[in-house]
Amino acid sequence: MTEYKKDQVLDHNYDGIQEYDNRLPNWWLYILYGSIVFAVFYWLYFQTTGAGLLPGERYEVEMVKATEAQLAKMEGRELTDEALVMMSEVPAKVASGKALFQQFCAVCHQPDASGNVGPNLTDAYWLHGGTPLEIHHTVTYGVPEKGMAAWGSQLGPKRVLDVVAFVLSIRNSNRPGKAPQGVLMGSGAAADSLGGGATAPGSEGK
Predict the structure, then answer these.
(1) Closest C-alpha to 66, from 86, 49, 82
(2) Does CATH number 1.10.1240.10 belong to domain 81-192?
(3) Residues 170/110, Cβ–Cβ less than 8 Å
(4) Where do the domains of the chain lie?
(5) Disulfide: which of 33, 49, 88, 132 matches 169 by Cβ 3.0-4.6 Å?
């Protein structure tokens, strides 16, 4: 162990106060050096390599796990708006739904859902209802008079849920594309006074 050197009085003098030059205690130095080493490894592990999850990221992971557990409990029960919204918060379901959407729906709605033959699905206007259950019904049973196929029989219930989860995850993202069509879905005094929605200018939504 290094011996302490004898205290020395420095030449510095301020207002009659002199300073001693004495060695810091070993325990203090060990804490200092240990903190520096810990900080370097912490920075490499969390910030540089990304091997570790930061607190915010761990929170998101736990929230997804909690959502998946809640959905598992609700499995087999009647679908609700709440359950569909919860599915849109599960990254795996949204990713699956996005792949299905781009494979089967992009021809009418564009890959980014901004609308082509079909309406823009990223704005706040909906032709056939914009609640989660209404969107699920539209995807499942289609709109034959408008040329939209009933995807429920082609994709099956599970994949329909994934598509709906994706659509719910992008609604109100307002991507530039086809002009609004249908009824404005929203809340507040303006929407309430119109019975929950306002018709888009120039549209024939009902």
Answers:
(1) 86
(2) no
(3) no
(4) 8-48, 81-192
(5) 88
Q: What does each of the 206 residues of the chain score in pLDDT, given as a tens digit?
A: 555 566 677 777 777 777 766 778 899 999 999 999 999 998 988 888 878 777 787 877 777 777 777 767 667 778 888 889 888 888 888 999 999 999 999 898 988 999 888 899 999 999 898 899 999 999 999 888 888 888 988 889 888 999 999 999 998 888 998 898 888 886 433 333 333 445 555 554 43
- Cα–Cα distances in Å, from 177 out to 2, 142, 205? 73, 22, 18
Q: Which of 110, 116, 140 is nearest to 128 (CA)?
A: 140
Given a contact cutoff of 8 angstroms between Cβ atoms, the answer to whether 88 and 94 are in contact is yes
Cα 105 from Cα 120, distance rounded (Å): 12
b/e burial code for range 19-33 (CB count within 10 A of at least 16 → b): eeeeeeeeeeeeeee
What lies within 8 Å, CB to CB, of 107 at 6+ separation is 116, 117
